[in-house]
Amino acid sequence: MLTLQQIKENPERVIARLAVKGFDGKEPIESVISLDNKRRSLQLQSDTLSAELNKLASSIGGLMKAGQKAEAEEAKAKVAEIKDKQKTFAEELAQTEAEIREMLLSVPNVPYEGVPEGKSAADNVVEKTGGPMPDLGENALPHWDLAKKYNIIDFDLGVKITGAGFPVYIGKGARLQRALIQFFLDEAGKSGYTEIQPPYVVNEASGIGTGQLPDKEGQMYHCQLDNLYLIPTAEVPVTNLYRDVILTADKLPIKNCAYSACFRREAGSYGKDVRGLNRLHQFDKVEIVRIEKPENSYAALEEMKDHVQGLLDKLGLPWHILRLCGGDMSFTSAITFDFEVFSAAQKRWLEVSSVSNFETYQANRLKCRYRGEDKKTHLCHTLNGSALALPRIMAALLENNQTPNGIVVPEVLRRYTGFDIID
């Protein structure tokens, strides 16, 4: 959520930067400023009444002692009248503040100056490319055929049990999944991240805190009876650990990682681009989350990108990094870098990670603050990234490492799997 200070300091800039995301911010930004002026006027009037009330209340005792009973009763009547006015002001003030918050919740984060303009994924900028590009020839099988051939993933069983987008991993497929999870967690630990095991369901306040609600309500599985939501990513519960928290400066940075299952309705997804593991309703992911001082957050973002790149290099996968344009960024992000790996059999790039800096946007919703050397509280910057999401990593590993004798397991995973080939 944007802060009032951000908006009021330079509303024209905020409106111009929001346009980079394809969002027309003129009306909501002007409404927020107008509502804030109203709030300040109401607060001033309320404060004036409070001062008058205190003055009258302190005079009543003196009037009674001086025997000026009539004047004391008149003062009491005025006190009662002022209290009624104060109640009205308080109700109107609360309503105005609620309207400001509701309006702010509807406005996306302002993109960082380094975010390129553009309307869709076609306008994203390739920043860096690496990893060995495999040459499998014309007879290479896509991962869904490999999964069936080696009996490691059963998509039809998932449909039988639940529905499309809920695959069943079998035997070496299940062990490879578990190996990837442990490998990612171990690598995060080596990089200084503290592991968290979070709940897989969150309340509404948590969804609002990280920005999934109200923006992505239709994409989340909602347990209506208890008004709880299945998490779309471990970012939500882990970042919410710091909701309504004032940290001491020496506690920063905070570096957390978490494995979780993730649940996304992905409404409207269909076609060849979502076949097999390309897009699921339930999948596994290891997430990294950082809470930083504002002056350090962009250095932290580079560290996170290096961490993800290191994972892909160790897995031997071809990758590139995209700097997302404004039109392809999330509602809450100030800047996002996507990592994609090349799927040799499908001959296409698959997104496996998004690394984002949200600056103060989530922290303002969460009231996640730290106390600086000036003894004042300041909003933190929050960041997160996939390190990594498993389905498309699995797809690329199966496809890129296929041989006539089976699927070769990357060397870094063999101590976790206990085997070096799927045959």
Report the end-to-end length measured between terminal Cα atoms: 51 Å
Mean pLDDT comes to 94
Number of helices: 13
- The gyration radius over C-alpha positions equals 27 Å
Topology:
Elements: H1 4-9, H2 11-20, H3 26-65, H4 69-105, E1 125-130, H5 143-149, E2 153-154, H6 155-161, E3 168-169, H7 172-190, E4 194-196, E5 201-203, H8 204-210, E6 222-223, E7 228-230, H9 235-239, E8 246-248, E9 254-263, E10 282-292, H10 297-315, E11 319-323, E12 335-343, E13 348-357, H11 361-366, E14 369-371, E15 377-379, E16 381-389, H12 390-400, E17 402-403, E18 406-408, H13 414-417, E19 421-422
Parallel strand pairs: 4-9, 8-14
Antiparallel strand pairs: 1-11, 2-3, 5-7, 6-7, 9-10, 10-16, 11-12, 12-13, 13-16, 14-15, 17-18, 18-19
Helix pairs in contact: 3-4, 5-12
Structure, briefly:
The chain has 423 residues and is an alpha+beta fold. The protein has 13 helices and 19 strands.
Give keywords.
8-stranded mixed β-sheet, 3-stranded antiparallel β-sheet, alpha+beta, elongated, 423 residues, 19 strands
